[in-house]
């Protein structure tokens, strides 16, 4: 389920204002060895305290998402300095749906191609998570149920840079709202770097909205 080289997203159990990323360097019995985590917002190395509780999310090779709680056991130096975490029993590792990722209101420019209905539509998202998004379509543009496609998404980062991702998607559902059609899309076959950029973008956007008191639960 959890393999060496897997990317982990973690947040302190007592704080929803911080989120870190790291990789699994080794696994031995009930221990996970990770490289020193990086703060998603600042890109700085994070120092974890012994016995600190953390909530971990990871994606397996089949693109399933899992979550578990762990705590810091200690540190060790192998080829590089590593942090040691507890690895819980398998029944303590919870499978979660992609929609349980942080979801935020945000207008991200995108150009979508729906393969089966052969529609090419420039539009914007209304909300976004690391698992998918909702977009606005013209009322006369109706994709098929479960239709697949790809889109180019433009992510403006807080650094001033723009990241362009070409992402595969599947249609989950469609509905009408406020005189327009909305479509919920699930991202598919995400690469590790794409997943991490989405998590980082959504987290920073969530912090911005929280300061204004505007956060989707």
Automatic annotation (TrEMBL):
This is Flagellar brake domain-containing protein. Residues 97-203 form the PilZ domain. It comes from the Bacteria. Residues 4-88 form the Type III secretion system flagellar brake protein YcgR PilZN domain. InterPro entries: PilZ_domain, T3SS_YcgR_PilZN. It holds the Pfam family PilZ. Keywords: Cell projection, Cilium, Flagellum.
């Amino acid at each position: 389920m959890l393999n060496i080289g897997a990317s982990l997203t973690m947040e302190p159990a007592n704080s929803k204002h911080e989120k870190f990323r790291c990789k699994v360097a080794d696994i031995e019995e009930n221990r996970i060895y990770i490289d020193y985590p990086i703060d998603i917002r600042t890109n700085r190395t994070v120092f974890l305290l012994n016995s600190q509780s953390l909530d971990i999310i990871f994606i397996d090779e089949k693109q399933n998402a899992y979550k578990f709680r762990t705590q810091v056991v200690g540190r060790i130096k192998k080829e590089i300095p590593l942090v040691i975490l507890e690895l819980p029993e398998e029944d303590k590792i919870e499978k979660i749906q992609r929609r349980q990722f942080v979801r935020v209101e945000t207008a991200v420019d995108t150009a979508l191609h729906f393969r089966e209905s052969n529609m090419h539509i420039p539009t914007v998202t209304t909300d976004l998570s690391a698992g998918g998004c909702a977009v606005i379509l013209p009322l006369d543009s109706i994709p098929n149920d479960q239709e697949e496609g790809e889109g180019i998404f433009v992510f403006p980062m807080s650094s001033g840079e723009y990241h362009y991702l070409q992402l595969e998607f599947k249609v989950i559902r469609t509905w009408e709202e406020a005189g327009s059609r909305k479509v919920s899309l699930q991202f598919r076959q995400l690469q590790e770097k794409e997943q991490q950029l989405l998590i980082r973008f959504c987290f920073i956007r969530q912090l911005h909205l929280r300061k204004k008191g505007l956060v989707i639960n």
